[in-house]
Amino acid sequence: MVGGVLAARGSVALAVVVVCLAAVALGEGRLGYQSPAAHLVLETVNACVALLLAFLVYGRFRRTTTWQDLLLLQGLVILGTANALLSVTLVKGQVGAFGSWLPPSLRIVGTLLIAASALVPARQARRRGWRHWALAPAVAGMLVFSALLYWRKDSLPAAVTANQFLVPQLLTLAFFAVAAVAFSLQARRRDDVLLRWLGPACAVGAFARLNYLLFPPNRPDWLYSGDVLRTVSYLLLLVAAGREISRHWALQAEIAVVEDRRRLAREMHDGVLQELGYIRSEIGSFDGPRSDRILAASDRALDEARQMLEALGRPDDEPLGVVLRQAVEQLALRYDVTLDLEVDESIVVDRPQRHALVRIAREAVLNAVRHAKADRISVQLSQDEDGSRLRIADDGPGFDPEQRQTGFGLISMRERAEALPGTFVLTTRPGEGTTVVVRW
């Protein structure tokens, strides 16, 4: 499954690169059209997507307070503002030197901040006040930059020519290329859905600037292939925004489940376990075979309740080897039996499989202690070319499997093993002990 996901991502990345190269190769002879309305629509879409993602990154920064998210927020806000201003210039037409130079200048600053966010380590900001003033640097910087540009408007050309357009495109190309490489490298090391899409988006943005360099846009009312590529990069940012929203709600659901499990664990500890402990202590004062059976049932109920309590309070990412070791060692210590334990810590399973395997191991060990009166129990967790294997063997007297196959404990272990999915094999004979093997 993981290989299929990686192959799908590689195919998507290859398709994006092919499209970008095709757009660069075709040039304006095929992808240049006089369409002010279409150009305005694309710039408006770019602005809305950048500001939407900035809003999501703002919420993300309030949770993480990392410098990376803070710089990324500033860059997206400035890029979105630059696109919005460009839309205004397309509507008004002639806007003078200030209106012509402000959007490309802000783009340089925005891409610089995005490249910086890709390079800065994911460290937290020391001052918690940044959570409330995260947008202040971007707003203040744009105001100061706009004031300086307005002050120098008389010395600027009335419109950006192709030669003057070269330097901004070179800078943004370099910044986007650096950001694409840095985000892609980080995505390989971190499980972050946002970083997975920022790399391709910045790569397409770099291709768009390369297209601008090869085929400079000389007419503001025309729609060029570079404009389409820029919109493609913003659409990839839109996908990143959608994945970030999905990840956020998935995390919220996981947090709600964890909180509910903790609440159930507290209620169980303060209620059921206390009552079972009291019942067990009261029964211990009676004598006779009936009281012994009730006492044994109370011990089993307490054991099951403790196991449920541990399962509720256990984190989802705890390795199978650790959980299995703790479970069988507790039983061996409680019932005073010798335990031979061999666990391969590299075996990885998901939470339902881990729960099923631990329950099978506990049931097999308890059967060996209670029914077989075994003195030594062997538990092995290993893997070979056929898959993973859990083996529990005891030195008890064994039994006739034809007479015990209908027991609820054996049926439960078999059903749990088959649901992994896996296989369950019980080997026993009178006088030779019992072995349980689960493969998956």
Keywords:
3 domains; 5-stranded mixed β-sheet; Rhopdopsin 7-helix transmembrane proteins; two-stranded antiparallel ribbon; single chain; Heat Shock Protein 90; alpha+beta
What does this structure look like?
By secondary structure, this protein is an alpha+beta fold. The chain folds into three domains: 2-257, Rhopdopsin 7-helix transmembrane proteins (Up-down Bundle), CATH 1.20.1070; 271-313, no CATH class; 316-440, Histidine kinase-like ATPase, C-terminal domain (Heat Shock Protein 90, 2-Layer Sandwich), CATH 3.30.565. It contains 15 helices and seven strands. It has helices at residues 2-26, 28-31, 36-64, 67-92, 96-119, 136-151, 162-189, 193-214, 225-270, 272-283, 289-313, 320-335, 351-370, 401-404, 408-418, and strands at residues 33-34, 222-223, 338-343, 376-384, 387-394, 423-428, 434-439. The strands form two sheets. The chain has a five-stranded mixed sheet, with helices on one face. Strands 1-2 form a two-stranded antiparallel ribbon. Strand 6 (423-428) and strand 7 form a beta hairpin. Helix 1 (2-26) packs parallel to helix 8, helix 5 (96-119) runs antiparallel to helix 6 (136-151) and helix 12 (320-335) runs parallel beside helix 13. It is elongated. Residues 1-12 and 23-30 have low confidence and may be disordered.
